[in-house]
């Protein structure tokens, strides 16, 4: 008689490492979003994630290493949200508006995105070396938006006379400003701002 019980798959050391790193980074993001960067000590992160302080040191080496890994995780998280929206299947105008919509829809309810902008604010205020990975990430987003605008112009759905690079920078600045404002006023209702932003930008960009 064949047993119907399934033998659990054994996880590899790589699987366990990836899981522990993800849980430590999630704990760090939660602490930063709730209490600020200073609260994300190795001891607090280990306690929140259910691991030892020593494992945090082993995985990331230093506070700088931890924060760089966290920035990379949060950037990947945002990229995944955009990919799920399948922006490349939309025309240029709708892809720009979809980018904005996805970003603002998730901004107020995603604690890890909040942690990203807390880190950004601290890096800028402290003239930190961490400004470089933020600048690189934001340049990537600007280039992605510029490509959408250029595609929309080629398709005839975005005004041809617009400077695509300037339009992309304007959209990025809008999202950065709203993200910073939400840090200052966590109770701000983003929904009417999201709707108004989409309406105004559609009017401004559309051919």
TrEMBL record:
Domain of life: Bacteria
Domain HTH tetR-type: 18-78
DNA-binding region: 41-60
UniProt keywords, alphabetically: DNA-binding, Repressor, Transcription, Transcription regulation
Pfam families: TetR_C_6, TetR_N
Gene Ontology terms, MF aspect: DNA-binding transcription factor activity; transcription cis-regulatory region binding
PANTHER family: HTH-TYPE TRANSCRIPTIONAL REGULATOR RUTR, MYCOFACTOCIN BIOSYNTHESIS TRANSCRIPTIONAL REGULATOR MFTR-RELATED
Protein name (Swiss-Prot/TrEMBL): Transcriptional regulator, TetR family
Lineage, uppermost ranks: Bacteria, Pseudomonadati, Pseudomonadota, Alphaproteobacteria, Caulobacterales
């Amino acid at each position: 008689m064949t047993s119907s019980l399934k033998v659990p798959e054994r996880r590899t050391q790589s699987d366990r490492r990836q899981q522990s790193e993800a849980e430590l980074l999630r704990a760090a993001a939660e602490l930063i979003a709730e209490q600020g960067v200073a609260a994300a000590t190795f001891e607090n992160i280990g306690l929140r994630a259910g691991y030892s302080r020593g494992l945090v040191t082993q995985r990331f080496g230093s506070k700088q290493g931890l924060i760089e890994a966290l920035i990379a995780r949060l950037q990947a998280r945002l990229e995944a949200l955009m990919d799920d929206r399948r922006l490349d299947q939309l025309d240029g105008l709708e892809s720009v508006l979809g980018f904005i919509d996805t970003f603002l829809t998730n901004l107020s309810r995603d604690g890890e995105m909040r942690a990203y902008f807390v880190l950004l604010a601290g890096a800028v205020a402290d003239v930190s070396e961490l400004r470089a990975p933020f600048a690189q990430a934001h340049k990537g987003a600007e280039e992605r938006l510029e490509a959408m605008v250029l595609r929309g112009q080629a398709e005839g759905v975005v005004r041809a006379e617009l400077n695509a690079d300037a339009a992309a920078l304007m959209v990025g600045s809008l999202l950065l400003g709203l993200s910073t404002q939400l840090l200052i006023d966590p109770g701000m209702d983003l929904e009417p701002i999201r709707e108004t932003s989409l309406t105004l930008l559609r009017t401004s960009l559309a051919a």
